[in-house]
């Protein structure tokens, strides 16, 4: 596969990346809303959850064109993207991402 990104693919990838990031944030916010805080121990547990999420976000939400296809496959697995979200990418890029997703 050609590693060069067309302007169209770059723009589509940025939009897809932002969509996945918003979906991840929504997922975690919903999870945190349901977290019961009735004591200081609960609060420290919530803090631990938030730190874990931040670590995950910093690890996965890096817009790096060398790794973005891999991350898109992860985002598909986590439900933060659906295959239709990739429709604005070239067919070659879509297939590359979907092949990683299927592994």
Number of domain units: 1
Global shape: elongated
Query: Which class of secondary structure composition applies to the elements?
Result: mainly alpha
Distance between the termini: 18 Å
Residue windows where pLDDT falls under 50 for at least 5 positions: none
Estimate what percentage of residues fall within beta strands: under 5%
Helices and strands, in N-to-C order? HHHH
DSSP E strands, number: 0
| Tally of DSSP helical segments | 4
- Using only C-alpha atoms, the radius of gyration works out to 16 Å
Largest beta-sheet characterization = none
State the helicity in percent bands.
55-70%
Let me know the average pLDDT. 90
Which descriptors apply to this entry?
103 residues; 0% strand
